[in-house]
Design brief:
The protein has six helices and ten strands; from the N terminus they run E-E-E-H-E-H-E-H-E-E-E-H-E-H-E-H. By secondary structure, it is of the alpha/beta class. GO terms for molecular function: transferase activity.
Length: 229
């Protein structure tokens, strides 16, 4: 089982190759606006430098969101294009689940994990997972204030992480049950591919024609100003 995975949910851009669930190659860039310019080069390199060809792939996996509108469009359109060109199935993994997979082994089984992606102002995209990886509160867009997660924090220790967690730190740092790791956890194709292995075995394939990014909320633009005559 050879799976190529892509994650362009945020400003970072990463591709990874997993064989039978084991990581064999990964390229990651953490600079702004790299997805459009470098994604195709990275995915070609990770396959070739790992000793394989694109025709040997069994599936393409992609982080479906939430995240950056532009980033998600680029990653998913690239993944769909590969699926069409190579006649391979598409696997889509929740970006927040992939983030959780990066750290869940480092915390006790009774802790809850809350990955967060910055959604501008005081809003974040987030979800709650058990340390086992099981989702206990679905992905949502939350505006952070002093009452955020109060019901969960009253009964659980919660680890907040990701680039949106700083918004929580400012208002929840006084809460003993709220933990904020110093390490910044960035979405990565490394764990998207790992989770995609299980999805492949369960044959959880997407319809390549109709699949759309998981934007979570509608794209908002400023209304155009009226022209001054």
């Amino acid at each position: 089982m050879l799976i190529l995975s892509l994650d362009t949910s945020t400003a970072a851009c990463s591709v990874a190759l997993h064989k039978d669930g084991t990581l064999v190659g990964c390229y990651e860039l953490f600079t702004e606006r790299t997805s459009a310019a470098m994604l195709t080069t990275l995915l070609d390199n990770v396959v070739q430098h790992s000793g394989f060809t694109l025709s040997q792939l069994d599936a393409i996996a992609v982080a479906k969101g939430p995240g950056s509108y532009t980033g998600l469009r680029i990653g998913i359109s690239t993944a769909k294009g590969l699926c069409f060109a190579l006649d391979k199935p598409l696997l889509a993994i929740n970006t927040l689940a992939g983030m959780t997979e990066q750290i869940r082994a480092h915390y006790p089984a009774n802790y809850l994990l809350c990955p967060m992606i910055d959604a501008r102002r005081m809003e974040v995209y987030c979800a709650l997972f058990e340390a086992s990886g099981q989702e206990v509160s679905p992905t949502s867009a939350q505006i952070i204030d002093e009452q955020s997660f109060s019901d969960w924090l009253a009964k659980n220790t919660v680890v907040f992480f990701g680039d949106g967690a700083e918004k929580c730190r400012a208002v929840l740092a006084h809460t003993p049950a709220a933990i904020f790791p110093e390490q910044l956890i960035i979405p990565s194709a490394r764990t998207i591919g790992k989770l995609a292995t299980g999805a492949f075995e369960a044959r959880q394939f997407e319809d390549v024609v109709t699949f759309e990014p998981f934007y979570l909320k509608d794209f908002m633009t400023n209304k155009p100003k009226k022209a001054i005559l």
